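Quick review question:
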């Protein structure tokens, strides 16, 4: 049974079949969310929200592109919206850190017995640098690089999702890589000071 067959039956009233689409595409949607959000819990929550939104708007699915392309578009847009909201929230948090806030927050993280704590800190620092560099990219570059590197999609698939040409996707990925190299280098230099 194809995705379009499943969708047709869902729209005719067999809502239980939606589970098949969720099972098939949930890992892909989760990876996309992780590529933007870099947080498992937030990505899990957003993945659920995306599938709820997709179900509620399933009657709007025209079938011009594959269901995978349609759900990717929803995932990318939802992830971008979430990062925009998170950026505003981070700005408020930074403001509170600079000017003080009434409640002090304590942060802790578990350290596996088998891992050297110094290595964990170094890995966390590198991950944070990459996340900050990714988040600073223009949205179209970030979208192209996340779909390329996190989801391992072809330029053709990315072009369909982003509604652009394959040449434009290739250029976006190249610019994103160059910008990431530049930003990571600048962040490394800034960190060493």
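Suggested answer, residue by residue:
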């Amino acid at each position: 049974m194809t995705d379009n067959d499943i969708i047709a039956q869902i729209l005719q009233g067999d809502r239980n079949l939606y589970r098949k689409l969720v099972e098939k595409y949930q890992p892909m949607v989760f990876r996309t969310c992780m590529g933007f959000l870099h947080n498992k819990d937030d990505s899990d929550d957003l993945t659920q929200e995306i599938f709820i939104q997709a179900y509620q708007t399933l009657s709007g699915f025209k079938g011009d592109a594959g269901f995978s392309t349609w759900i990717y578009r929803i995932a990318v847009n939802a992830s971008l919206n979430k990062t925009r909201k998170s950026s505003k929230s981070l700005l408020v948090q930074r403001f509170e850190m600079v000017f003080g806030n009434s409640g002090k927050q304590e942060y802790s993280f578990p350290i596996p017995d088998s891992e050297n704590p110094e290595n964990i800190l170094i890995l966390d620092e590198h991950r944070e640098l990459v996340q900050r560099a990714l988040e600073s990219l223009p949205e179209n570059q970030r979208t192209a690089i996340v779909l390329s590197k996190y989801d391992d999609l072809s330029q053709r698939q990315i072009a369909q999702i982003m509604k652009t040409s394959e040449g434009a996707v290739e250029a976006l990925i190249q610019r994103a890589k160059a910008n990431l190299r530049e930003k990571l280098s600048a962040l490394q230099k800034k960190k060493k000071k």
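Why it works: Residues 155 and 166 are 6 Å apart (CA to CA). The first helix runs from residue 3 to 11.
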